[in-house]
Amino acid sequence: MNMSKAKKKPTTDAVAILHRRLVAGKPERVAALEQIRADAAVARKIHDLRTQAGLSQRAFAKLVGTTASVICRLEDADYEGHSLAMLNRIAAALHRRVEIHFVPLRPARATASRASRPAA
To answer: What is the pLDDT of residue 13?
Structure first.
């Protein structure tokens, strides 16, 4: 039996199925999904830092110099307006600092092949 023609075992993982059908191979959808994940991660981090500090949204807002409604928006996974200035204010209120990391979107081999090309 030819192994290349063998059928793959079907998956029952709903997330994998939806990803394959709706996102895989569609660069604009992959980019949108990455943006959604990034926004949600920032919102979750703000919420986690606030709750670890034992602060209500109102008390936290007072420390940051804003309103509770702004903190509520910042902690919403659907919010897309996180600014570096506000993140720095939040960090300062919690005696922390903001660090930004740039990570590759593609596998390392695609990035490495570009990096090894001579400059034009």
So the answer is: 83
- Please state, for a pLDDT cut of 70, what percent of the chain lies above it: 81
Q: Of the candidates 87, 75, 7, which has an alpha carbon nearest to the alpha carbon of residue 41?
A: 75
Farthest-apart Cα atoms in the chain, separation: 70
- Sequence ranges of the domains in the chain: 14-99
What sign does the CA torsion over 22, 26, 29, 33 have?
A: positive
Question: Using CA atoms, how far apart are residues 42 and 74, in angstroms rounded to an integer?
Answer: 8
- Out of 3.40.50.150, 1.10.260.40, 3.40.50.1110, 1.10.10.10, which CATH number does the structure's domain 14-99 have? 1.10.260.40
**Is residue 1 scored above 70 in pLDDT?**
no
* Amino acid (1-letter code) at residue 110: A
Rounded average pLDDT over 86-104: 94
Ramachandran bin of 95, using left for φ above 0, alpha for ψ from -120 to 50, beta for the remaining angles: left
